[in-house]
Design goal:
Blueprint: E1 7-11, H1 16-27, E2 31-36, H2 39-49, E3 52-55, H3 61-74, E4 77-82, H4 106-131, E5 143-148, H5 152-155, H6 161-182, E6 186-193, H7 199-202, H8 206-213, H9 225-237, E7 245-248
Helix pairs in contact: 1-9, 3-4, 4-6
Bound molecules: nicotinamide-adenine-dinucleotide.
């Protein structure tokens, strides 16, 4: 699939893995639209790179439709990389004192699923709708989507019921959505990152990050967001890759805590 002459949406493009993907797709010649809720950083990055920014919450139908329309106004939308999300620890399933009130907050669980899973699916369904109107390329392709899960989809740690199940949901939708979109010539693949050097990870401090890096078999360091962007770009442009989740993790396997 050709990125040059296409528009590309990167959700969560104002920071971290999304920002690196914005930079890479811009270098590849795509007309990039950053979709984010961090207006200050999103506008700053868009101005620096000469790309577009749209304020949109991935869980909002109206916001995402407006962003998709803004991207299609630049050029046919053929690429979407969904990075917006996040989370971490939400607490244990039951509390220490045996009271119902001390059980895991249902609101917090719902928030993890709403942001990471429902938000990602909202972007997929609306971006794919716009892609389905594109002229097909020589292979019959009209577009490609990459979503972001986490190794927590497979090895969620203690306290990660919400985040782990939301990310497992992203893994779980990859094949059925690839099958749904096959008739339209749209591919979808998922990246499950391990431990990457992005702002949320930097907030942990050097000592914690060094100890996390020591658990990674090889290379013994956190992932570079540019390495995520390189895989995302490959998955967008290699027309034979479809319906698969790829771990990008230096062979790390997360322990219970
Ligand atoms: N960094 C890691 O080690 C790591 C590991 C596994 C998975 N991930 C996943 O990768 C993705 C990116 O993580 P990151 O580390 O780059 O985080 P980050 O915080 O640097 O970037 C996330 C971006 O998403 C935006 N965002 C948050 N909620 C949004 C919403 N509702 N609508 C639109 N934008 C929203 C934020 O404003 C931010 O710019 C997340 O889905 C995260 O769960 C990260």
């Amino acid at each position: 699939m050709e990125l040059r002459g296409s528009s590309a949406i990167v959700t969560g493009g104002a920071s971290g893995l999304g920002e690196a993907t914005v930079r890479r797709l811009k270098d590849e010649g795509a007309k990039v639209l950053i979709l984010d809720v961090n207006d200050e950083r999103g506008k700053q990055l868009a101005a620096e790179l000469g790309v577009e920014y749209a304020h949109a919450d991935i869980t909002s139908e109206a916001d995402v439709i407006a962003a998709v329309e803004a991207a299609t106004a630049l050029a046919p939308l053929r690429a979407t990389v969904s990075c917006a999300g996040g989370g971490g620890l939400g607490g244990r399933t039951i509390g220490r004192d045996g009271s119902y009130g001390s059980a895991h907050s249902l609101e917090s669980y719902t928030n993890f699923v709403m942001l990471n899973l429902v938000g990602t699916f909202n972007v997929i369904r609306l971006a794919a709708t716009a892609m389905s109107r594109n002229e097909p390329d020589a292979d019959g392709g009209r577009g490609a989507i990459v979503t972001t899960a986490s190794v927590a989809a497979f090895e969620g740690q203690i306290g990660q019921a919400g985040y782990g199940s939301a990310k497992a949901g992203i893994v779980g939708l990859t094949l059925p959505v690839a099958r749904d979109l096959a008739a339209a010539g749209i591919r979808i693949n998922t990246i499950a990152p391990g431990l990457f050097d992005t702002p949320p990870m930097r907030a942990w401090g050097t000592e914690m990050r060094d100890s996390l890096a020591a658990t990674i078999p090889f290379p013994k360091r956190l992932g570079d967001p540019a390495e995520f962007a390189a895989l995302a770009t490959h998955l967008l442009t290699n027309s034979y890759v479809n319906g698969q989740t790829f771990r990008l993790d230096g062979a790390v396997r997360m322990q219970p805590k």
